[in-house]
User: Fold this.
Amino acid sequence: MSTTQQRMPQNSFRGLVVYFFIIMALLYILYSNLLLSNDQKDCQEITNLSTKIEAPFNYSPTTSSSKVEKAVEKRQADRVEPAPGSYYRYDTELKHIAFGIAASSNLWEIRKEYIKAWWRPKETRGVVWVDKKVRTRRNEGLPEIRVSEDTSKFKYTNKQGSRSALRISRVVSETLKLGMKDVRWFVMGDDDTVFIVDNVVRVLSKYDHTQFYYVGSASESHIQNIFFSYAMAFGGGGFAISYPLAKELANMQDNCIQRYPALYGSDDRIQACMAELGVPLTRELGFHQYDVYGDLLGLLGAHPVTPLVSLHHIDVVEPIFPRMKRAKALAHLLEAAKEDSASLMQQSICYDSTRYWSISVSWGYVVQILRGVMSPRELEMPTRTFLNWYKRADYTAYAFNTRPVERHPCQKPFVFYMNKVRYDRARKQTIGVYYRHKTRSRYCRWKMASPETLDSVVVLKKRDDLRWLKVHLF
Assistant:
């Protein structure tokens, strides 16, 4: 009897537990349905909100409908109607771009030759800003030269850097204050920065100059990007700031740089002010800082699929064409740019199936032929012909993948540098002649044809100024 009485409370307890779980399950189902219905309403509200955000003007409660319509009409007028499948571009031209070039009086006689290589008198607009007066001559084919304003009132506490960073950080603001007419973009670079000006126009034409844009690229060195910032446009490679953003920067920059006395350079001060303005970096891989030493062959021979906009650290790396002085090598490269700047350094990969050769063409610069068949995945990867900015660092310290120059003695590339490029009107093609750079070749046991028997390579190509307009907008 006692055993039966003990089981009855246990059975009633089990029943309560079962009822409790049933009630909880019902509540869960009802609550889930309520949440789903609310989510659908929220999704509709978000959709409506995103439609408002995409409106092509800055709305404020005081904006009248007529002003809004005029703003929309102006932006639509600036747009160039694209071909089917292309993205919108703006009618930005070279005349809409003002260059601000930071220069040093100590290095002026050497580096002015780099500026001469790319500057186009009476076409390009801009100013060279120096720390003190430099000697000039008439008809040198250089931009206007001005002395920067005094920056002694600003604090600078970085023991490893130079106070010139303060002066250089204000180049864009000082160029803006000159009051140039019809400027849409300010492009800043150093006196050892070389711009491919037609490609500067191509890149900036993608962006709405009436909005806030800060366009540039990071360093090739992972360590440099860690020390400074991956969110920073490195100034030597050049960067672009839209006109409205330049105005905002000029209004607040003097106060901004006072808040960052411990920063090292000019470009990290610019990025600090951009962060205060809430403007992120828009990355364009054609701006090249080139924080490397040695030969740029590996990098330029496998250029990313984007217009080549700039080169930097010309004094540090070897001349891009062997047996030429640096300034002459740059002028030689820009001769090819005159014929087809849109295709400059763009890589093409092909194969000779009878000789089992792999061929990589970096148009306007170099042709490389290798024995054996290498996959495009390998060929589009830069070879390590260069050294890291931090000489103790190895290949793992780059911000991109690299490969060794050769994995086997027989796979050493045979290099043919561009000798001349001309346009054949009859064929409607550019004809490029590339001569082999003769060096001692290593012994190869492979029983196959050797590219060593070739002295030159001729590359035929149809000019295509619209190649960068054929990108779909997804």
Notes: Confidence is low (pLDDT under 50) at residues 1-8, 38-77.
